[in-house]
Specification:
Layout lengths: L1 H24 L9 H18 L9 H29 L7 H35 L4 H26 L15 H16 L2 H32 L3 H26 L1 H21 L6 H15 L1 H21 L4 H29 L15 H4 L4 H10 L2 H24 L1 H15 L3 H21 L1
Helix pairs in contact: 1-3, 1-12, 2-3, 2-5, 3-12, 4-5, 4-8, 4-11, 7-11, 7-12, 7-14, 7-15, 8-9, 8-10, 9-10, 9-11, 9-15, 11-16
Length: 454
Amino acid sequence: MIGNIFFIKQFWDGITDPLIGILSDRTRTRIGRKRPWILFSILPLFIFWSLLWFNPTFIKSIPSMIGYVSIVLFIYSLCKTLYLIPYQALFLDQATSTKQKSKLATYYSAAYVISFAVSTYIWASALDFFQSLGISEDYSYFINGLIFITIASIIEFIVGITCYELKDAPKPKSTETTLRNIKKSFKELFNLISFPPYILIILFIFFLQGSVQFNYNLTVLWSDYIVFIPSKNIILIEQIAKIFSVLIIGGTSYFIGNYKTLIIFLILHSFGLAYKFTLSSENELYTIYIALFINGLFSAVITVIPTSLLAESVNLFQLKYDYHVEGIAYSIRALSLKVGFAFAQLIVTYSLDITGYTPPDSTKSSSSSSSEVHQLNESTLFIIRFLSTFGIIIAYFIAAILITIYTLYVKYRCKDLTSISEQNQDDKSNYSDEEYNKNTNEEDEQSRLIEKHI
């Protein structure tokens, strides 16, 4: 039932993500376009995140509990979208050239990988600490969630009041009606999803990030039934490896570029996954840990590089059409991730159902004895091995083809746009940020006066 709720939530996100993206792009306030959304979302995000970890013991019936979970989850998802879409689009406003935006996107992704790894470890450690004090599991999760969201809210508030936005976004005409604004928004959306570089990157992200779900969904089964190692140890090793990987990826992409770095890491990770397919409980423990560390080292590239390439494609679009679509662009990107995750989840679930797999009794330890492991038949064990290794490799192969087409298209069909981006950067380098924004605003005002006169 919970799985069905999360699956339905993807359709809910399919409505809210693009809507918030369009609205945030067309927002014009004294403090900016994205900052109001970030500041407005902090309080509701705090409330509904806390409610996610609260166990309402006063609700006795199962249908009422399902209704409570559904309402809280859907509203929390909306609040998260209110914050996340404008925030992710915001860093594109920190630079004017394609190279600068790609570099900032790389920094953003690197920070995400490191913070995710650190917070995962702290979350698990804090839970163990609270339970060691004799606090029940339900209240341990609630207290943990409350502490985390308090820290996150403080950081979000600081970001909301201190972040910087360029002032070169065109203002809508006062004579435009609501209907005309809606039509214009859908026209911008259509132009974006029909822009070849952007749609290639979205498809690339769909296959690349969707393949990650194979690993996430099957980590517990692979650890409990293949190598007999606690899944939390596997996750910890891979996250530590990703922290080191960020430094390697950053240095490599600086010298040889994003495309070559991506292809090299995908190939190396594919070899690592092929070796992972051969692992079992018969291997030495240190051999398994080394293999997991190496796989984690190469897998971070699927988080860092795609964000940089997405920033590049959005900047090329804005140079061609001369209007801002950061919010819409990142809402579609978020939607493609969720659809990719849901699609991978369906493949995993359907494949395991075919083999006759049934989840173990939750009241028993899934790795308590080897006799319980042998309850899985050979076909189920093969599916677990295959999808968590070669399933990802197949998705990597498709993603590599898409990113190759993208690179060739940008190189040969977007030469003029690339040169414009470099020229804009050269122009800005001759001025301070204040002088550049002043000149840009004066040019925009002159253009509006000429248009009004015509």
